[in-house]
Amino acid sequence: MLTFFIALLTLVAGFMTYSFFVEKLLPPDDRETPAIAHPDGVDYLPLPLWKSFLIQLLNIAGLGPIFGALSGALWGPVVYFWIVFGTIFAGGVHDYFSGMLSERHNGASISEIVGIYLGPQMKTVMRVFAVVLLILVGTTFSTGPAGLLALLTPASLNVTFWLAIILVYYFLATLLPIDKIIGRFYPFFGAALIVMCVGVGGGLVVRGYNLPEMWDGFANLHPRALPIWPLMFITVACGAISGFHATQSPMMARCITNEYQGRKVFYGAMVAEGVIAMIWAAAGVSVYNGTQGLWDATTSLAGQSALVYDICIRVLGPVGGVLAMIGVIVCPITSGDTAFRSARLTLADWFDIDQKPRVKRLLLSVPLLLCGALLSNMNFQVVWRYFSWSNQTLAMIALWAAAVFLCKARHNFWPLAIPATFMSAVSSTYILVAPEGFGPAISRMVSGEALTGAAALKAASAVGYPAGIAFAALCFAAFWFKCVRPNAAK
């Protein structure tokens, strides 16, 4: 249990110290923010700090820090390291620069920011990546809460019924001005999220669950011996660093009322999400008495939704479990709605479509929601895996864009370049070894036979590991010779 508290305190300490260091790299000033300079009554609306923070937190804290942390807990307490240090040195930095660079460029979408600093080709790649990712997020965060709601309601109200209700809500949240639904209901949703976190975390401590210590098992404890690198770093995305956040931060960049709110809203919300991930990782590995018990529960219960429900009931009992489940349901819904909204804004920036007229918002909202409805019929686990990889790839690109900004501004770029290089290795290695990537083809090439599971991953890693490191080195070399050296020579 001591490791759990040390991890939580380290997250808080990271916000109290490292966030100030990051803020100095892109220091705020007294310029007018987009919300003050030209409010439009739809997307550019001044909001108070507390509301901006809550909306940002609820936007980014979907099922990722819950489902991802539970899956990451299969590797044992080592996952705490990634959640803590990933949040402080990668996720918080990524979110702060995504939000502040958007604010400095009139609330532009992340794809437009990437185009400014990495060129028009990367802007096109990022536009496609962002829209696809956002639709995947919206779809993922539709099926998950629909499953959870179906568990809590009579059998006649099945998953299909709740999925239809959620998609209708998403359509309204995508179409209407941000203060009509999101700004009005998110404070209540935020309260539900806080109840969930405090309830589950407090229940683990009060009920005396055996939370494993890092020094008791600093090893790969995955029951199927799946490698920590790079699988854990992709599985636990939203609880450490997430490119999805870069698509969400511009929304609040259009609503904050002064730049000094940026550190609290963007970096602070990421740290809060890290706390959520820590609580659920601890719950997964302790409620079932270790990783083997968690694996058995994961495979025996009907999906991740049932696993979350089971943990809530075990930790808090029937009444507390329902309260906690409300928080778990709120998390994905408050990310799914803004995912589709961000997709609309990204397309609007892409094709320069004014979003003040309702008809033009409809022209973008309807096709997006139809795509989400069609994808909701796909296997959740398949959608989640592709979402996770595209998520971390988008984070990699956003970090490189911010590193180029700092380089051109003649500021210290290392706090961005180091996590950007690391995430380049993570993302490229994963797609080379994973079953949903090139793993099967590479493992067959290496071994000469069709392998599956851990054996296939091991065979593919013979090529994927060095290739991933080489790709990361190539990215850093390109950054150094195309940005650092030319700017140093001026």
UniProtKB/TrEMBL annotation:
<feature type="transmembrane region" description="Helical">
    <location>
        <begin position="226"/>
        <end position="244"/>
    </location>
</feature>
<feature type="transmembrane region" description="Helical">
    <location>
        <begin position="413"/>
        <end position="433"/>
    </location>
</feature>
<dbReference type="InterPro" id="IPR003706">
    <property type="entry name" value="CstA_N"/>
</dbReference>
<feature type="transmembrane region" description="Helical">
    <location>
        <begin position="79"/>
        <end position="97"/>
    </location>
</feature>
<feature type="transmembrane region" description="Helical">
    <location>
        <begin position="308"/>
        <end position="334"/>
    </location>
</feature>
<feature type="transmembrane region" description="Helical">
    <location>
        <begin position="185"/>
        <end position="206"/>
    </location>
</feature>
<dbReference type="InterPro" id="IPR051605">
    <property type="entry name" value="CstA"/>
</dbReference>
<feature type="domain" description="CstA N-terminal">
    <location>
        <begin position="3"/>
        <end position="142"/>
    </location>
</feature>
<feature type="transmembrane region" description="Helical">
    <location>
        <begin position="128"/>
        <end position="153"/>
    </location>
</feature>
<comment type="similarity">
    <text>Belongs to the peptide transporter carbon starvation (CstA) (TC 2.A.114) family.</text>
</comment>
<feature type="transmembrane region" description="Helical">
    <location>
        <begin position="159"/>
        <end position="178"/>
    </location>
</feature>
<keyword id="KW-0472">Membrane</keyword>
<feature type="domain" description="CstA N-terminal">
    <location>
        <begin position="157"/>
        <end position="287"/>
    </location>
</feature>
<dbReference type="GO" id="GO:0009267">
    <property type="term" value="P:cellular response to starvation"/>
</dbReference>
<dbReference type="Pfam" id="PF02554">
    <property type="entry name" value="CstA"/>
</dbReference>
<feature type="transmembrane region" description="Helical">
    <location>
        <begin position="453"/>
        <end position="481"/>
    </location>
</feature>
<keyword id="KW-0812">Transmembrane</keyword>
<dbReference type="GO" id="GO:0005886">
    <property type="term" value="C:plasma membrane"/>
</dbReference>
<keyword id="KW-1003">Cell membrane</keyword>
<keyword id="KW-1133">Transmembrane helix</keyword>
<feature type="transmembrane region" description="Helical">
    <location>
        <begin position="265"/>
        <end position="288"/>
    </location>
</feature>
<protein>
    <submittedName>
        <fullName>Carbon starvation protein A</fullName>
    </submittedName>
</protein>
<feature type="transmembrane region" description="Helical">
    <location>
        <begin position="386"/>
        <end position="406"/>
    </location>
</feature>
<feature type="transmembrane region" description="Helical">
    <location>
        <begin position="362"/>
        <end position="380"/>
    </location>
</feature>
